[in-house]
Amino acid sequence: MKALILNGSPRGEKATSHALGSLLADGLRLHGVEVDRAYALGALHDEARTSALLDAIDAADLLVLAFPVYVDSLPAPLTRLLELVAARTVHRSTATPRCRRLAAIVQCGFPEAAQCDTALAICRHFAGAAGFEWAGGLALGEGGMLGGGLDRIPPKAAARVRQALAISAEALARGRQLPHAAADDLRRPLLRPSLYILAGNLGWRWDARRHRAKRPLSYRPYAERSI
Fold it and tell me: In the Cβ-directed half-sphere of 5, how many Cα atoms lie within 13 Å?
C-alpha cells in the first residue's frame, strides 16, 4: 500500500498538522505502508510541482489530509489543490478505476474539537465528488498548544494523542475505517478549557505588550461609534 500525507498548513514543517501527520506516518510505516509526505502550499508555486503532486496523489492508495481550520474551513492552498484533484478525476477516463481512500486529520486553536466538524464534512463531500472512499476523520481542539510536537502538552494528553494515532494508523493500514474510539480520544481536551482560555488570553496580552500596542485589546472603535 502507498500512502501520501498531504500537509495543508501554510506553516509547513513547523505546524501542528505536520507533527500529527508525522505520528500517523510513523504508525503506517510500522504496518508496512510506504508513506510519502507533501505540502499543498509549496506545490502550487509552479506548474511542474503542481503536476508532480497531482501524479503522486493519483498513485497513492491512501491520501491523508492534515490541516488546521481556517475560520471553519480548509486553508486556501489546500482547497485549490483539491479543486485540481477533483477536476482531474472528472476528466479522467479509466475503464476500471482504482479504489482510493481518503482520511483527514483536522486541528484547531479553539478549545472545542467540534469546531473542526464543518471542515471534516467538506473533506467527506470532496471524497465522494473525487472518487475516493471516505475512511473517516480525526478532530483535535486546542491544537495551538502542540506547536511542532507533543512536548508542550501534559504527558497524559500526549500519550493519548500518540495512542489514538497509532490505533488509527493500524486501522488505515488494514484497509478499515478510522476507529470511533480513536476519534473520541483525540476529541478530548488536551488541557482543561478554562485553563487553556486563560493561557491564551495571557498570551495575547503579552504579545500586545511586546509589540507596544497603542490601544488595549478590548478597543472596539466601530462598535462604540454612534451611527
Answer: 28
Q: For position 128, which CATH number holds?
A: 3.40.50.360
CB-based burial, 163-186: b 16+ in 10 Å, e otherwise: ebbbbbbbbbbeeeebbeebbebb
Strand, helix or coil for residue 144: helix
Strands 132-140 and 2-7: unpaired
Find the DSSP H helices in the chain: 16-30, 40-43, 47-59, 76-91, 117-129, 155-173, 180-187, 193-210, 221-224
What is the model's pTM? Answer: 0.89
The distance of Cα 168 from the centroid of its chain, to the nearest Å, equals 14
Does residue 212 lie in a domain region? no
- pLDDT value for 95: 45
Judge whether 217 lies within some domain: no
**Helix, strand or coil for residue 15?**
coil
